[in-house]
Structure formats: structure tokens, C-alpha cells
Amino acid sequence: MSLLTNWIESLSYDLEISESCTRKISPLSSCSACFDACPDEAILLENEKIMIDEKRCTSCGVCITACPVQAIKGQSPSRRVIQDHLLLEQESPLPSLTELLYYHKKGIRFIHQPSLTAKLVNRISQTNEVLGAMSLELLQVTNQFVLKPDEQPMLSRRDFFAKLSSDSRKTVLSSVTPVKWRFNESNFKPSVLFKDWSFYKVEINEEECTLCEACFNICPSGVFTLGENGLIMNENQCTGCHLCLDICRTSAITVEQKVHQAPFVSYNLSKNICKQCGTGFHAWEESDSCHICSTIKKPNFFF
What crossing angle do the helices spanning 118-133 and 97-105 adopt, rounded to 10°? Predict the structure, then answer.
């Protein structure tokens, strides 16, 4: 195959669901973020396997911004931005909450749509609740947009042609470089956008938790860090995928959507040695029997 053919093929792509998808990590996952966000109902679950129907998919990219673990590889929706305005066409796919937070971080303060839809107004209201909790400037929605002449910077002839040349290079690079170079799913993680804030409150019920460590090991966002003498909870890393809830057999974890400043959360643990099997294990207090050995029923012998 020629280099030209390889290059041409690199300019197009199909959305891809990576192995970091919680549905692929565990069959117990109940995450439905991409299903709910897709306007074309192109993401399906068949025989417990998640897949994208290429006939239905329009590569709009909404699912990329909605996935809590950034498991869908591709480009986010193509949007038109002028100054601090995000301009949405009437047929534009509805932006996700995370996408609007991303644009707010980039300086967007106004969302424009010619004929405002109830869904867009509701989505902006949801976003403003999050922004308000962080005491940040709220987004405004409008159906009128007029670019004022005095807001346009005056350019000299030299500056004009320099900008034209720069913009042309950017346009060429954005259209003829391999698409995978422009994948940006990693941009839509709230903990990266707002590092000092947590978007979810995570708690462990010590009376119910057996410290089996399943949720610690399976969490795709690294919320739990287990040390020698304690458990550290990195709440600001939680993206609300709920995988820890799905796999917990004792319902010992709660995850509540709550915007708050990222705290330092730790739990004291005891490192023990099981007298029956000899393995080391963590427990909420000193113990001589691990959870597995303590739950195994001892046989009754009758003589």
C-alpha cells in the first residue's frame, strides 16, 4: 500500500470504544452515559458487549464528551466559536454538561442558538448549577448574536496577512493531518478542568465494607489509594462512572453528585496476618482472620 493511500485513509476514522470502558472492564457495570447522550441511538449493547452501529453513527462526537472515563476515542463535536460566544446551529447536537464546562474553562460565556430549544436551556441550567457551586461566572443563553465593529481589533496590513497566513496553516493542519493526531477525548475530564474541585462525594460504610479491595483495584480513575496503614480517597478523581457501586457485594459505597472543594479524605486501617491461611490483609481493626477465612464455614465432625 502506498504512502499516499495510507495518508488518505488516515484522514477518516470511525469512533472506537477502548478497553477503559467500564462495560468492558466488568459485565456488572451499569454505566449508560454514552447511550443516553447519543442523538442517533447508535451505541448498542448486544450480548453484554458494547458496540457502535456504524450505519447509524454520524460521528457527531457527543458521546466522547459524555463518557465519564474518556473511553470513546475520537474528536469532540465541531463547534463554531467567536470571541466568548459558542454558536450552535439549530441542528447541532446538544452539548453535554462536561462539554459546556470545557468551553467555560476556555473563556466561553454566551451560548447562542437561533431558536432556543428547551433541552439546551435545561442543559445550560444544569451547567450553571455546577458553576454556581464553584462561585464561577454563569453561562448566558441567547438567540441573538451581533458582532460589534468596535470589538474587532484593528490590524495593520502586515498583521492582516500574517494572521491570514497563520489561519490558513491552522486550517490545513486541522484538515489534512491524520485524524488520530486530533483526538481530544482526554480534554473532557472535570478533575483536569477544575483541579481543586470534586464533583462527587464518595463514602465508605465501614460497618458494611469487608475491605475485599475489589473496588480499589478496578476503579478506572484511581480514586482509592491503599497504603500500609490507611486508605486515601482521591475524591477529585471520581467521574461518577459508578463501577465501584456496581461491583460492591455489600453495598458499602455511596457516590453522590456534589460539587465541593477537593478534601483530603483518609481511613485508618490495620495490617494483619491471617492465622489460618497466613496471608496479609487489611481490616478496619486488628484481626487474626481474613475475610475469606472468616466466611468459610467450618465442617462439623460427629463421632
Answer: 60
